[in-house]
Design brief:
The protein is of the alpha/beta class and 189 residues long. Strand 2, helix 2 and strand 3 form a beta-alpha-beta unit. The mean pLDDT is 97. It binds glycinamide ribonucleotide (GAR). The site of glycinamide ribonucleotide (GAR) has 17 residues, from helix 1, strand 5, helix 6 and helix 7.
Amino acid sequence: MKKIVLFASGNGSNVENIIQHFKNSKVIAVAGVFTNNAQAKVLEKAKNHNVASFVFSKNDLESNLVLQKLQSLQPDLIVLAGFLLKFPEHIIAEFPHKIINVHPALLPKYGGKGMYGLHVHKAVMENKEKETGITIHYVNEHYDEGEFIFQTSVNIEECQTPEEIAAKIHELEHQYFPVVVEKLLIPNP
Ligand code: GAR
């Protein structure tokens, strides 16, 4: 059985979608949900699906606590699904090519520090982009700059608000993110 752990900071719709996707899987299991936000709705979602959760502070992430917890779980893949803090280099070094992130835009556009969630969609709207999309990529020591794994785009000419763009992006994420995770772990089923 391959093990994944999920990191999120907020609502956790992607986390819930990934948990549901692998619920009856005989080959991939969600071993835990990690969050830096004790108020995050993702915690309730993990609980509802009987998935263990772990709340940590920024300090825990930057010191050794989160690393130790990950080492005890030995995940095959660490999936950042709406995780808003910078992932620390000492954890990346311990899990080479085993940490992936979903970004709600077509990187390298609209990436980097401060570019998360609605901030991304507001910038996309202000620039009158005709399309946007999602990028799933490996995590390296620079925000949103790791090797791309998957991209797909969507037309947003009819969107009137950043929230409408966000809804389209969530649809793409929910459709593709679990499938990409699955393909990375089980390339030839
Ligand atoms: C997702 O759209 C994800 O791409 C984005 O946060 C949202 C979380 O939604 N991540 C980033 O912006 C990271 N830079 P969710 O909590 O409903 O899954």
